[in-house]
């Protein structure tokens, strides 16, 4: 009876940890499990506070969750991958307004020339994934600085 109670406590602890990580943008899925072994996929699906985890950090978190089970653990880590499809000229203008930035700020901070930025913002020139990513991380810095100061 005592062994069953301990297993219940461990299962509740694991479930609670998985739920906590989900709130923090980290999804934990049990792919396989038997009496000796567990296969877990852990994925950073969202950024909270701009903190990006690497594979080693994700593996460490998964091991922390399942260590109390006493099972052997195999972890499949999936690092955060930025979806740049939502980075549009309108999104950029909204972020500029949100942070009180002018075109001249972006030109000097990101080393774009004036005509290049105008073409991006008008939609006349398509943005590559790397250009979209540069805008995302540029505005993420302003967001984190604002949040840090508040």
Q: Gap between N and C termini, in Å? A: 51 Å
What count of structural domains? 2
Strand order, biggest sheet?
A: 1-2-3
- Backbone shape: elongated
CATH topology of the largest domain: GMP Synthetase, Chain A, domain 3
Largest sheet: 3 strands, mixed
Class from secondary-structure proportions: alpha+beta
Unreliable sequence segments: 1-6
Task: Please write the CATH class name of the largest domain.
Answer: Alpha Beta
Q: Portion of residues in helices?
A: 55-70%
**How many individual β-strands?**
3
Mean of residue pLDDT values:
89
Taking all Cα atoms into account, the compactness measure Rg is: 22 Å
The number of helical segments is 6
Q: From N to C, what is the helix and strand string? A: HEEHEHHHH
The CATH architecture of the largest domain can be given as 2-Layer Sandwich
Beta-strand residue percentage: 15-25%
Can you tell me about this structure?
- The N and C termini lie far apart (about 50 Å).
- The chain is built from 6 helices and 3 strands.
- About 55% of the residues lie in helices and about 15% in strands.
- A 3-stranded mixed β-sheet has the order 1-2-3.
- By secondary structure, the chain is α+β, with helices and mostly antiparallel strands.
- The longest helix is centred in the N-terminal third of the chain and has 22 residues, at about 1-25.
- The protein folds into 2 domains: about 1-80, 2-Layer Sandwich (GMP Synthetase, Chain A, domain 3), CATH 3.30.300; about 85-150.
- Helix 2 (about 55-65) links the parallel strand 2 and strand 3.
């Amino acid at each position: 009876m005592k062994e069953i109670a301990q297993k219940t406590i461990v299962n509740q602890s694991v479930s609670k940890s998985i739920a906590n990580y989900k709130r923090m943008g980290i999804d934990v899925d049990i792919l396989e499990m038997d009496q000796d072994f567990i296969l877990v996929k852990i994925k950073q699906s969202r950024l909270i506070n701009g903190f990006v985890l690497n594979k080693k950090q994700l593996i460490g978190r998964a091991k922390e969750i399942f260590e109390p089970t006493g099972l052997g653990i195999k972890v499949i880590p999936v690092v955060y991958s930025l979806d740049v499809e939502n980075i549009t000229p309108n999104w950029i203008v909204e972020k500029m307004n949100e942070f009180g930035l002018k075109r001249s700020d972006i030109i000097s901070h990101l080393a774009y020339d004036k005509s290049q930025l105008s073409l991006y913002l008008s939609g006349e020139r398509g943005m590559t994934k790397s250009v979209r990513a540069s805008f995302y991380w540029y505005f993420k810095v302003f967001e984190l600085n604002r949040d840090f100061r508040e």
